[in-house]
Amino acid sequence: MTEIAKPTLDDIRRAAEAIKGHVVRTPFVAAPRLAKQLGLASLRVKLENQQFTGSFKDRGSYYKLRSLSADEAKRGVIAMSAGNHAQGVAYHAQRLGIPATIVMPEGTPFTKIERTASFGPRVILKGDSIDAAAVYARELAAKENLVFVHPYDDPYIVAGQGTIGLEILEDDPELDYLVIPIGGGGLISGIATAVKALKPGIDIYGVESDLYPSMHHAINQIPPANGGQTLADGIAVKSPGALTRAIVEQHVREVLLVDEMTVERAVGALVETQRIVAEGAGAAALAAIMCHPGAFKGCRVGIVVGGGNIDSRLLSQILMRTLVLDGRMATLRIEIVDQPGVMSTLTRVIGQAGGNIMDITHHRLFVDLPVKRAEVDVLVETRNAKHVDEIIDMLDKTGFPTRRLSSHSAEG
Q1: Residues spanned by the domain of 74
Q2: Residue 140: in which H helix or E strand, if any?
Q3: For the chain, which end, N or C, has fewer CB atoms within 10 Å of the first or last residue's CB respectively?
Q4: 287 with 345, same domain?
């Protein structure tokens, strides 16, 4: 397999043999509750978040490093990444005894730096973006004669990721559609190459954040338009690979775009419904089905959760926000008479209505109220959005004018 050739099915099969026993053969689990909610005949989820480093990058990283000559392995490798690729290369380089250098942007979160460093590479923080880090990594590779391990635009990387496609069809050959996240395109290119060779009739959709639609714009001849803070930072790539773009154009039916709120909902839905922890990029495929339900209605669909390396604090915020969006938690602003005994009456009314009070904040200095009145903000846990309305109605009828401060979904 030459460095410029597209990987073939045979290349991917060779990769599968090479990585066997060195990466996790991840489960492809059924998700019947999500399928019912989304109007699908069936939904299965490929859990690449179960890899040792928490993402599919283990596959391509190991296969690329294993392909090095003895001289290349002795010289060492260098990679640029702000997260999953860094960990995949560092982990497998350590296992194979290959010296590794990882260049990460200066703003990379501490947890990702520490997690990468724990595998023993030389970690260098350079540049204010992944693109700047890449420029420095290339320069350092030339200066120190290191092998540059590209995160996606490399046939060995693509072939390694393509082993996922072989496993998917082994587990469920009856799928109608596959939905796969796209960053630089290595994951979808490998899977599409394998799957389309074995089952040409299956349709494959790619997914990108609408803030970073690099592959979508490239294949549709639209000028680049990337930028902004995205929860799906693992696929926030400004320039897709040349190799991967060619494969996407050949095998992928369409690249779908997803908005930030839907990605957030998808992360929450995977935890709530399936108990699956996914990072934003890992949940992008589910977000695409949420955004474009008509395209998949009544069909057998498979999605890939590419990674689960999400910051714990961010995940906790998403789960709390999910409760608010679903109407299971709401902040109510309630007007009261500021005198003894009123607060006990207020809390009793909420309790009788079935609400669970999580927090209360008392406001006495709001100047738009008479001096003998006050307002309280009550954070209340409820069954659903309809229950919130029932609590508000009971408060109003009991003499406590109430309005909702927190937003919620339109569905009860």
Answers
A1: 59-148
A2: helix 130-144
A3: C
A4: no
